[in-house]
Specification:
The structure is a homodimer of 258-residue chains.
Chain A: E1 2-5, E2 16-17, E3 32-33, H1 37-46, E4 48-52, E5 57-59, E6 67-73, E7 76-79, E8 87-91, E9 96-97, E10 100-101, E11 104-105, E12 108-111, E13 115-121, H2 122-131, H3 133-158, H4 162-179, E14 187-188, H5 193-200, H6 204-216, E15 220-222, E16 227-230, H7 233-245
Antiparallel strand pairs in A: 1-4, 2-3, 4-13, 5-12, 6-9, 6-13, 7-8, 7-12, 10-11, 14-16, 15-16
The structure holds a DNA duplex (30 and 30 nucleotides).
DNA sequence: CGACCGATTGATTCATGTCAACAGCAGTGG
DNA sequence: CCACTGCTGTTGACATGAATCAATCGGTCG
């Protein structure tokens, strides 16, 4: 990990999200910058910029948690450190990560690509919090969003069929690109098959097989191993919906809400 | 739903949690009251107390989100409203729920038992936020905790074997009791088998079978259908650990952290 | 008592895990 | 330039464990 003084050619830490309490704030779920320029500048003053090489560890589970991170560029995975490599989340630019419990990181984090990030030490950050209610409010917004993301993850894992899980995963990446205003049409998949498996709860073999199946059914196309495009959008949506269709057994209806 | 003016025989909304940045703050993960008496009183001033009968809906997915809730007593489930009944979370006293996206609730919520809760309207709450940095900070702490909880949920769903999932679920309930200082020895299970299934990602039949299996193996004992005790603690831990043991195939080693 | 809901249990099916061989590709070093 | 090695991804054969369908049972409510 390299440490560099926060330079001024960037405005400072950047948090993208949507205010959960403002209706249709920018319409179709588009995220935007939550922080004002002055907030970003103030945060820049207490932070440093760090770089990680591909594959480098950002922190390990149980490490003393003295900072949180804000990604400028690259992709990070947050995973269970205890031998079990299940991945809890993929983190992208404008995301915040490094949550702790009782002062220690609960998960481990590793750079999947080369990563640049702001490192925000806890102590000065808490100082800022105490003086800046708006900043805290924005962090609350971001946390709500991460919570929603974690729920979506759990929702996907509740799905039984492998193709639905993979399709949900692709949709997640696609929506992420869309929310960031990136070019559509092609989905960039920065993580390898094994990491996908750890995230969606399938074996490496099953992930590979499922991709192959979707290609055979002409639902998706794979150029590069990391560039996927949805060919048959209707079939894609049908797969995603397919999850809700089943599990329509006896127990469901009439009881859920009365 | 009944609405009652917030009475003064209670101190006001109550949020339990642990400050994620204070090391071993009360040792073994014990949670405590995050709000001061004056904060609680101020929140009480802007909130009302609501009651829900068993089975009653608190809100539905897509409803205009104009308030969040803080449980005083009872258990609530938060579930996906779109026909698909998967449960995202069980909420207990001192929990906060009612998160929204663009001003609308994303999930539906239903009372599993009779429930009493504070209802905190968003508009005045945001007023209070603007004037009370400490309150916001406490909400951040709570959100971090809920995020962690959602991650644990996803972690459990990543598990393949039914007995591990059920054991994790029981452990979750047990730790919940412990964190609240409730009596140990017996686990109170306020939800029915079907709800458990929706939460842990198993069919109703599989939940039932798995409980039966654990009883047959003398790992747990079932008195009442909602009162379970762990008989063979060692075997119980072994089952929980069993998850991490597998998935040790080729792909894992040497790459996760270098 | 009949109807209904929650729960248990059995028989069968089928998707995914597991094991294993192998192919593509990159990096390394002679 | 070419073996050698290691990692990533693909594919096949087989076993397994949970979903599904369905019958049954106990409790509760009217």
């Amino acid at each position: 990990m390299d440490v560099i003084a926060a330079s001024f050619d960037r405005k400072g830490p950047s948090i993208w999200g949507a205010n959960p309490w403002v209706p249709g704030n920018s319409g179709h779920g588009l995220r935007h910058q939550l922080l004002s320029d002055t907030e970003r500048a103030r945060l820049a003053a207490i932070s440093s910029i760090v770089r990680f090489k591909k594959g480098e560890a950002v922190y390990r589970a149980g490490d003393r948690a003295d900072a949180i991170f804000n990604i400028i560029g690259g992709v990070v995975k947050s995973y269970c450190g205890n031998g079990d490599g299940r991945i809890m989340a993929f983190l992208f630019p404008h995301d915040l990560f490094g949550l702790s419990e009782e002062g220690a990181y609960v998960n481990a984090a590793q750079a999947l690509t080369a990563v640049t990030a702001y490192r925000l030490p806890i102590a000065p950050l808490r100082q800022r919090f105490a003086n800046d209610a708006l900043l805290e409010y924005h962090v609350i917004c971001k946390l709500c969003e991460e919570l929603r993301q974690a729920e979506r993850h759990a929702f996907m894992l509740g799905e039984r069929r492998a193709d639905v899980r993979i399709a949900s995963f692709l949709q997640m990446l696609e929506q992420l690109h869309a929310a960031n205003g990136d070019a559509a049409g092609e989905i960039y998949v920065p993580m390898n098959r094994s990491d996908i498996g750890e995230y969606v709860g399938l074996s490496l073999a099953a992930v590979s097989r499922t991709f192959a199946g979707l290609v055979r059914r002409k639902v998706i196309g794979i150029r590069d191993r990391r560039r996927i495009e949805v060919i048959d959008r209707a079939a894609f949506e049908r797969i995603l919906a397919g999850g809700g269709a089943r599990r329509s057994s006896r127990r469901r209806q009439g009881r859920q809400v009365r």
